[in-house]
Structures
1.
Amino acid sequence: MKVLLVKRGREPYKGKWAFPGGFLNMDESADVGALRELCEETGLRAANVTQFHTFTAPGRDPRERVISVAYYAFVRLQEVKGGDDAAEASWYRLDDIPPLAFDHEQMFDIAVKSVREKALVDIIGSKLLDDKFYADDLHRIYEAVLGTAVDKEIFVKWIVNTGRVLPLTENAGWYEFNPAWDVKALDVIKP
């Protein structure tokens, strides 16, 4: 698993690495702004983002009072390049992150914790797989996200028991995401 960072092209922290981001336009939601900034600064187009935390501490940015709504996205590795106010964009392994600008080291720690917590209660990483996938592929994603070895037999039982993943009867070891899962989940929570 890798994280996408940009090298800042402007002050403050010019030349330091940070997460892609910026200020919202007056006519956009935080989600739309996050996707726009990601594309402008790296060239990456993500289908969706997941909000994980809001950072509100005074003094986070030396220019002015800034509140950051932080997101993550699972995407396949692809070529990226710096754009807009980002001089460069690059992928980094989780264990090889350079010093970060602003409070982005705290953001990184909270993002990793959030993704790992979500992985323990829900299937993550589906955007990284084809519609039909081998259990080993999802298993590797989980080991990378959790940063530890995961018993494969227990893992496969768990993903099937969630109801989100279905084994393919025609191909042993192959699975697909349950297209009816979201509908079933909505039925369960309806009043």
2.
Amino acid sequence: MTQKELAKLLSIRQPTISDWKKNGVIPPADIVLNIANIFGTSVEFLVTGKEQSIVLSESEARLVRIWRGLSDGDREKIMMLIDFKSRAPREIALQADTV
């Protein structure tokens, strides 16, 4: 993406981006947040170059290891089950409220 394209997405002038880069200036927080969203990354990564590390419990780490070994088809089936399971308690509660 060019500076001109990014400037258009941010509703700012392209020379502003050039000035930030040339002078090593960090843009205002709202702009940094928008840039992170545009590039699908975190503000922390934009500012520090490092992603925040996430500490997983042993059971979470086990799930990740298993997940990585699954086929795309199996992952999709599991995601459907997770979606169903996460909706079920809310739907039951909503049905109880209407009775």
